[in-house]
Design a protein that fits this description.
The protein is an all-alpha fold and 257 residues long. It folds into two domains: 212 residues; 32 residues, no CATH class. The protein contains 13 helices and no strands. It is globular, with a radius of gyration of 19 Å.
């Protein structure tokens, strides 16, 4: 278990910044995910280091259109086993040629099926909600390579937990406030503690920061740019190649967690 290093001063600093946009936070009730459990799991895994609006959303829509009958995670598991491999499933059903991400999806689905099977007398979604509200990113036992705290916490949020996912936007937000690098688990702990101190929904705070970071950058009149050194730029034919190389680095980092 990684040590989490937060102080009262750190919590207070983050709380002060959160209070500045408290009146602009979305209603937590509006953040409840309307999709069936099977689609939420696909959402969670596809979202790892990929742009949500342009990559994840179109694939979710196509999957739901093609498989309106696939509602439960156990049904998703059955559909996946109808393919020779998880990779074949994500290629055909999700238009995604990524063998390692297919492995992650398969392992997450198998794990969640075991959770559901432990309480067969209650609906699947209720069983998963009970599980996510009782877990923490530093203590979860999925042990799935490439599925770190950000992915795990997003999964918890999709099933109703009032928490935050320590993705790059949350980590950046907290790091800039404290003027130092923070780990994903530190960012998670600080945002939860600061939100609680202000009496705010952690999920609403997370949503505000994510929208400002992910969608704000996409819609900015002057998007952020990074000037590559000439020898580095020469190795990439276009911006898509640069993005793919950086995503590969992020994925390798996640595998080490």
């Amino acid at each position: 278990m990684r040590k989490i290093n937060i102080t009262e001063a750190d919590i207070a600093a983050v709380a002060i910044e959160i209070a500045k946009f408290a009146s602009d936070l979305p209603n937590p009730e509006d953040l409840i995910n309307p999709h069936p459990p099977a689609v939420r799991v696909i959402d969670c895994v596809l979202s790892l280091n990929r742009p949500y609006d342009t990559f994840v959303v179109p694939r979710l829509k196509i999957f739901m259109s093609n498989h309106p009958d696939i509602q439960q995670i156990t049904e998703l598991a059955e559909l996946m086993t109808s393919y020779p491999t998880p990779h074949a499933f994500v290629q055909q059903e999700l238009n995604y040629n990524h063998e390692d991400r297919a492995r992650v999806l398969h392992e997450v689905v198998v794990f969640l099926c075991t959770i559901v099977q432990q309480t067969p007398t209650i609906p699947e979604e209720n069983a998963l909600r009970q599980w996510v509200v009782q877990t923490q990113p530093q203590t979860h036992r999925l042990n799935i390579r490439g599925f770190g705290p950000a992915g795990f916490q997003y999964l918890c949020m999709l099933f109703g937990a009032d928490t935050t996912k320590p993705d790059i936007y949350i980590i950046r937000f907290v790091s800039e406030i404290l003027n130092r690098d923070v780990s994903d688990l530190e960012a998670h702990a600080l945002l939860e503690a600061a939100s609680e101190r202000e009496g705010l929904s952690v999920r609403a705070v997370d949503s505000y920061i994510w929208n400002r970071g992910a969608r704000g950058e996409q819609n900015a009149d002057k998007p952020n740019t990074v000037q590559l050194a000439p020898d580095v730029a020469a190795a990439f034919p276009n911006k898509e190649a640069v993005n793919e190389a950086l995503r590969s680095i992020l994925e390798e980092r996640d595998k080490e967690r």
